[in-house]
Design goal:
The protein is of the alpha/beta class. It has 12 helices and 6 strands. The model has no long low-confidence stretch (mean pLDDT about 95). It binds one RNA strand through α3, α4, α6, α7 and α11.
Amino acid sequence: MKKVLVIVGPTASGKTSFGIECAKAFNGEIISGDSIQVYRGLDIGSAKATAEEREMARHHLIDILDPTENYSVKEFQDMGRELIDKLSEEGKLPIVVGGTGLYIKALLYDYTFFDEEEEDDPYDELSNEEIYKILEEEDPEALENIHVNNRKRLVRALNILRKHHEGISEIKDKQKHEMLYDAKVIGLTLDREELYRRLEDRVEKMVADGLVDEIDNLLGNGVSFDAQSMQAIGYKEFRGYFSGNRTVADCVEDIKKNTRRFAKRQYTWFNNQMPISWHTDTDEALREIKEWINT
RNA sequence: GGAGGGGUAGCGAAGUGGCUAAACGCGGCUGACUGUAAAUCAGCUCCCAACGGGUUCGGCAGUUCGAAUCUGCCCCCCUCCA
């Protein structure tokens, strides 16, 4: 099996710099496992690796899309796997670095997606309860982890049923739920309070570094707040500011709050969805990686 | 010194005799997750040895079968007059 080093953790845990350190130490290249850093022009708010950092190690899947385009786990999975193959052939270590849990899991495990694009929500006329009822009859297993209030999931489950004549639960049942690679998944973590402090400092720094101008430019270039890219934390919160009814300070508070919650959700995902070797100390992490490389 | 308003769980804010450990919002915590995932959704949030028990609504003392809700005194805060 191909070796893949994976570095995960909540936002602001130091993944970027540790990834670069590993790339240098193990002759690797970085594959970004991040749903926002793919967008050109969303630099400050997405905490993208800087130009200097990208000089130090080759980065993939960053700046590959226009902010008006959509991106999804399927595309990430396809491109990521291709890169893993290519790098492995070249004798380089693929290093996946990112905080988007679903993307990383879908890359590593045999999640299967269909080729066609997703429709938005073609069931205007159906209430959540009605969709729920249909699923209850045709794919009850899927409902085990979909709540009635979660329309997005309800719609998705029904879409699959309608188009492919099998339930989402059947699709899952066909999978092995094993990793496709010899992956070493390292999680970077730190004390919660300290993380929160760091998050907040980082948000302040983003604003000082020109986040508001960055957004202003995006808007000037025809990117709307409705774009998928603009749903990112650090961007969506400024909608009120640009429509004139909120101050920058208000927006910044929202960004901090949303970032805290996001970090929490990342922990929930990584703690419960994949086996991860957590580290506070990068030297220890490095040691563990060395051992794995040599086996 | 005088007149009025107010002190409720981490914060904001309802409640004005029993159905109230106390609505609701915020914040926080926990969890779910197979195509928007930095998204979407759910649960918990006074304390505990917890399908039960223990302490609460500025403080103390009362009224009452029963009080956050009524009475008295005290403390603190705000506005206005002096």
